[in-house]
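Before the break, one more example. Copy the sequence into your notebook; we will annotate it together after we see the structure.
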Amino acid sequence: MELPGALEADAVIGTGRRRLLLGALALWAALTIFSRLGGAPVYIINEGREGVYVRAMLDTGDWILPSVPNHVECGETIPDKPPLFHWIAGAATGVRGALASGRVLAGSELSRRFDEWTLRSPSAIAGVLMTLAVAVLGARLIGERAALLGAATLPATWQFVQQATYGRVDMVFATCAACAILLAGVALTSGARAAGTAAFAGLAVLAKGPLGLVLPGFAAGCWVALRSLRARSLGWLQPLPWLAASAVLVSIVVPWYGAALLKGGMALVRSHFLTENAGQFFGEPMPLTFYVTPWLADSFPWNLAAAASAWQALRRRRPDAEFLAVAWIAVLAFFEIASYKRRAYLLPAIPLAAMLAGVWLDDRLPGPASRGTEALSTAIGRTLARLPGWSAPAAAVCLGIATVGTLAALVTFSGTRFPDPLYTGAATIVGAAATLLAGAWLVHAVRTGDRWLTFAALLVALSAACAGPVRTAQIGEALTSSPKPFVDRVVATLPPGEVVSVRGLGDDPSLLLLLYFPFPDRIVVVPQAEPPRTDPQPGFHLLGPDEWTWLQSRPEFPASGWRELWADVLRGRGLRVPLVLAQRSHSR
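Here is what the structure looks like once it is written out:
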């Protein structure tokens, strides 16, 4: 197969320059993603779910299939997803704990070191790795300059940055699945080995279950079907080492699933295969228009460039970009067909769209292919050199606006425990000023017709907005919706050694309680599915409004020893549940 023209640059561009660019790209992605990573408390139930299971791993030392007996999810007390995300978060907790204490920690002592930063660190690490994967693996498909351009759009994509700062499995899964798809494209278009594809598909399975194999297989299968229809034959697939790839996949997936099946039995089958995969794909369908707004808004404007590039690739039949176009459309179609839908499910399509956008940009930015990387590496210098004479006063105005906005944000959140206000304020000022200043540069670049300046200003504006004011807004939302003050109040009220029973809250909202309650052995959540209402035993109880009303309506309530201690509201994203902390001193 004829190599893309941009690949010819490899003979001209030095290894040192490539490494420098990759290092700068990784640093940029890390600064954007890791900025104030632990600044927001957990207030999303999905984050709470993964955090509960990481804490259970650390508490019990069971890294295969820890049980959380005081919480029921998918009808089971075991994790509803494989443990790759939890392993990374647990390892990060261990490393931070050892560095802070100077010794190796374990058990409850280690689990109490677990915090928001370590919960989100797997997603943040995966986000940086995805950026590098697009630049490195993408170069083997579409050429070095196009791959670097595509990778540069990721830290300037709102959905990518947002999901990389959430403690959920989606970013880890998306990174593994995207790498599997890219390596499958390399293997199918150039005849390279498929072992790397199998390895990343296996890791994707360990991140989110069978979907890790199904999604790359579906994306690559659509390309195989298209090419086979054109060739009217499947003979071109025979030279690929399928047996070796299968052995790699089995060696990664089978050890954990084998051990988990021995430990969990049918509970694992019901949770991982039936409920989480088959149930969500074939269950009650959600509206077909669900993904319209997320697709249009969450990766704008690069999704539009990707759509234009995909159309051109399919029309011109360029093998490398055509594979990306088919894979991108296949991933979007797969999640559109699935019954259950979430915005984060589109994440595996983001790196494919970024590479297609890189192809589109590569065709339109000036400079021959052999000088593409040099042009990219000097884009910032060219931006500074082309600033208009009014840039200094414009920067001062932008900085003043950003300062006022930041002070207003700090005053707004002054009633909450705002984390590191000086650091948060400085980060917001810098981010807001950079966003506004880059916006001014963008207007100037569009007026002068300088394409490199336009691209660089757009990248800086979007990336600075994600790391600056947008991140501040997210932290503010989390602080106003945080369950931590509620949990702190419960812990402060309980006498030493006492256990609190939670009734009438529901399984999912209880995750936020379980995550922040510092003593897992002193809180018991009564499952939502428990059929009859029973007369609670003496002790401390957190009761939902229906439970408390039911108890009060009983004739024996006045003599039953109940005493209301206080009432408050448990908050979270879209969650506002009134609860009563009551004590029963004796039974009737």
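The first helix runs from residue 15 to 34. Confidence is low (pLDDT under 50) at residues 1-13, 368-373, 383-392, 406-418. Try to locate both features in your own notes.
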